Structure to design on (322 residues):
């Protein structure tokens, strides 16, 4: 005979689980729109596209994935109550795969943005979007992994989107730009990619993302700096490690022609140890410094070359990712 105590425990657990999911769905589904856009490709052809977007303010601002609205300036969105509204693309940032829209009219139900830094592996998450055109679809899963890095390329430039959330919540084409929410119903990620069966990725809502969204809302673009080197993390030679008290740096593999790094005198084989007074151990450390504020002056970079420390002063230039 089945154990009635165990059966009661399972039912209670299922009820609690269901209550969380239905609460999140009721709170967030009205904030997620099914987007329809028309893209213009490089040959000038007009192609239909679709995705999801999350309203974040009562005056019509919304977030989606940049690739959803690539090549489009406007489109329309439909909400689960049947309400349809036009939107303009305020700004898009291909190197973070984020875009900001603004819907016409009122009567919208904004979502609350959370903080992905509070997530833990194994935590319940709820994905809300419009996969394959089925609006208001809700799927659940757990945080499978944190701290992933997603390389995104645009206009010959590549950037790592850091702290990407990996989840096993079912994602399909059309989910891009939709919400990934925690059990409290706050948006902790914007679904961006289906990396395989049972493997979805979301751009985290964190301090870096909030700055990107604020910049897109204010200026319609994100200003980034670059110095023009490619490289990778490597162990330091013993003498270099002893000099700075660390074991890793970034070896310069290539200096781009015509770049600020070439003008400043960087060479292939240099090992970058510090930049702007901050330790550099991997490419992400250097990338974090390449923000708009870096365009306002010079940057002192400490490198290891010819068995000694050297300081190179470089003036970062603005990155064009168009």
């Amino acid at each position: 005979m089945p154990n009635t105590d165990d059966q009661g425990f399972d039912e209670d657990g299922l009820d609690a689980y269901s209550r969380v999911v239905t609460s999140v769905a009721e709170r967030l589904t009205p904030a997620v729109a099914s987007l329809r856009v028309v893209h213009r490709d490089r040959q000038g052809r007009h192609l239909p596209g679709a995705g999801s977007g999350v309203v974040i303010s009562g005056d019509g601002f919304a977030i989606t994935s940049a690739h959803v609205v690539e090549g489009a300036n406007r489109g329309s969105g439909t909400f689960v109550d049947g309400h349809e509204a036009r939107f303009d693309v305020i700004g898009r940032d291909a190197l973070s795969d984020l875009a900001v829209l603004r819907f016409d009219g009122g009567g919208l139900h904004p979502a609350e943005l959370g903080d992905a830094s509070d997530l833990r592996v194994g935590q319940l998450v709820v994905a809300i979007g419009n996969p394959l055109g089925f609006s208001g679809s809700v799927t659940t899963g757990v945080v499978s992994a944190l701290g992933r890095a997603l390389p995104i390329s645009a206009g010959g430039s590549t950037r790592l989107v850091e702290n990407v959330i990996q989840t096993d919540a079912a994602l399909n084409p059309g989910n891009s730009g939709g919400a990934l929410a925690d059990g409290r119903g706050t948006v902790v990620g914007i679904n961006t990619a289906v990396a395989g069966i049972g493997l979805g990725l979301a751009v985290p809502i964190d301090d870096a993302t909030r700055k990107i969204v604020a910049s897109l809302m204010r200026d319609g673009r994100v200003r980034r700096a670059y110095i023009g080197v490619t490289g990778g993390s490597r162990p330091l030679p013993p003498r270099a490690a002893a000099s700075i008290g660390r074991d890793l740096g970034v070896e310069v593999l290539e200096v781009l022609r015509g770049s600020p790094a070439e003008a400043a005198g960087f060479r292939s084989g240099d090992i970058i140890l510090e930049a702007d007074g901050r330790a550099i151990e991997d490419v992400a450390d250097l990338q974090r410094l390449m923000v708009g504020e870096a365009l306002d002056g010079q940057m002192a970079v400490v490198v290891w070359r010819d068995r000694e420390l050297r300081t190179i002063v470089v003036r970062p230039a603005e990155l064009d990712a168009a």
